[in-house]
Amino acid sequence: MAWFKRSKENISPDSQKKDLPDGLWEKCSSCGEIIHKKQLETNLWTCTKCGFHFRIGSKEYIDVILDKGTFKEMDKKMRSGDPLEFEDTKKYKDRIQETIKKLGLNDAVKTGTGKINGMDVAFGCMDFKFIGGSMGSVVGEKLARLIDKAFKNKIPLIIISASGGARMMEGAFSLMQMAKTSSRLARLADAHVPYISVLTDPTTGGTTASYAMLGDIHIAEPQALIGFAGPRVIKQTIGKDLPKGFQKSEFLLEQGFVDVISPRKELKNNIYNVLSLIF
Amino acid sequence: MAKTILDFEKPIAELEAKLEEMKKLSDKINIEDEIMMIEEKAKLIKESVYKDLTRWQRVQLARHPDRPYTLDYIYAMTNNFVELHGDRGFKDDKAIVGGFAAIDEYKVMIIGHQKGRDTKSNVFRNFGMPNPEGYRKALRLMKLAEKFNKPVITMIDTPGAFPGLEAEERGQAEAIARNLFEMSRLRVPIIVVIIGEGASGGALGIGVGDRILMLENCWYSVISPESCSSILWRSWDFKEQAAEALKLTAPDLFEQRLIDRIILEPLGGAHKDHLQAANNLKAVLKEELELLIKIKPEKLIEGRLEKFGKMGEYVE
Fold it and tell me: Mean pLDDT of all residues in chain A?
């Protein structure tokens, strides 16, 4: 009998060093499975072996949630105005420019209208890739206008969140976007128009502490990190390791802050289904 | 009162100490002229130091351990105050205090973050960092104010909402979000005053209102300079630069049109004269109350929506 047992499977030399030929294959960060991109796409960017949900962006979610070809984008050109002329190790202006060029996105949220199984909806989706999905003036303003669209047209609102929180480089302007979006949501609620908040990995900070936690219905993807403070900060505060599964969707369901946990494959139908019951 | 002297306050403190000494002596010998001269000099030094404070120095003043806190202002400004406790769901959070009060002829609800002054009271107050039940207590009190048609005054002074394990379990994010939502449609006037530190969501959680006022030596931003430094510079050593970059002082926020009005502090900061600081605040609050109580609830709510709607800079 061996004295020591390897606890991790992942330690054999070939499992770690497998070269992935130029972008055709993706490796599951949960189970290590190597999956062809095409296959991953047809599986809605979830692992074919363990079901792990890969992080995806607005482009992909539009395909996942909305009826094909129905998305009409609003405020496509809106960009940050760099109100503080912020500079850390790099100028914020340059950071923005580079990110726009690299990703082909103008900021961390895409908004517009579309249909879900024929039902008109106002639809917003964040892009975590764009400076950590951070919320600055553009995210706040685009979402505020989206909420107004839902309010005027009396159509359900759906926002998919994926964000590290408010954007530091816009200082107090970013902070105020929390108040801006929340006040518009209050008006929408008074008009009895439903709002479904979809929480994906990760949703933290000022985003969670505003529109992401203000849905009539909260739907989360499995195993998504959702919280106010990030796990590292909490660990520092309490000086202890965090319990397993802490701040994950399943934990939030248990604590009473999420209504439904939905695998990505069922997300569209789950959203449609609950809307059809209340609207 | 325990005296803490910040680095840039030292030259002034030394002069003031010398003055005290001389005043004691002046009973015995005639040095009136010298005293007057030093007083004049002290005043000039003070004026020049406090005119050109760096942003980091203002952050330090906002955190000055001798600075007046919410309850100090309440006791100085009101002639009647009944503190109310608890969120009716979980417990009473000591980092947020509140209750009905009378500021001369105005009956109001006052709610604010509360810090402690020494280790023991800071532990009791959790350093002014609320848990979810603090925000829920604040909301309960605001709803009470709405029910009895009393204006709400909130006072912001927090290093942030508490980033603890239990806070997450009980929904820190939801508690703050709920307050933003409900405050934006509360049917009574809300005056928000930043009296010290305004750190991020933990500050904004009681910070939505019709008028946003800020004491002269305060900071209000999305993150503290230290945390900003640690994230963007990957080191704790760039807090001064971070403070500069964040443009987080009262004059900054006034220029950014994110606050409505700056309230002057006694020369040297609010900690130099608690009563004077409270009197300045009281006078402004009375002016604002007089205007706000005349506005109909629908107009207030509409105005709030528009006010926060305008905040943000983008290009299209």
Answer: 93
Cis preceding linkage at A202, omega within 30: yes
Q: Which domain holds residue A148?
A: 56-278
Report the percentage of chain A scoring pLDDT > 90.
89
Q: Token digits for B80?
A: 């009647």
The domain containing residue B97 runs over which residues? Answer: 59-309
B160: CB partners within 8 A, 6+ apart: B129, B199, B200, B201, B202, B203, B224
3-state SS class at B193: strand
Task: Quote the Cα angle for A93-A98-A100, to 5°.
Answer: 95
Give chain B positions within 8 Å (CB) of A256.
Answer: 171
Average pLDDT on A75-83 reads 96
Do the Cβ atoms of B315 and A79 come within 8 Å? yes
Q: What percent of chain B has pLDDT over 90?
A: 83
Whether residue A183 and residue B205 make contact (CB cut-off 8 A), yes or no, is no
Task: Tell me, yes or no, whether B179 and B207 share the same domain.
Answer: yes
Q: Is residue B2 one of the residues assigned to a domain? A: no
> How many residues make up chain A in this entry?
279
Q: Are residues A244 and A173 in the same domain?
A: yes
Query: Looking at residue A147, which CATH number applies to its domain?
Result: 3.90.226.10
d(CA B284, CA B175): 30
pLDDT of residue B36: 86
Q: How far is A201 from chain B (nearest CA, A)?
A: 16
A191 touching B (Cβ < 8 Å): no
- If asked whether residues B39 and B167 sit together in one domain, one would say no
* Distance from C-alpha of B180 to C-alpha of A241, rounded to nearest angstrom: 32
Listed residue (B277, B263, B248, B281) closest to B60, CA to CA: B248
pTM for this predicted structure: 0.94
Shortest CB distance from B222 goes to which of A168, A228, A255? A168
Q: Do A182 and B314 touch (CB under 8 A)?
A: no
Q: Does the structure show a pLDDT above 60 at A13?
A: no
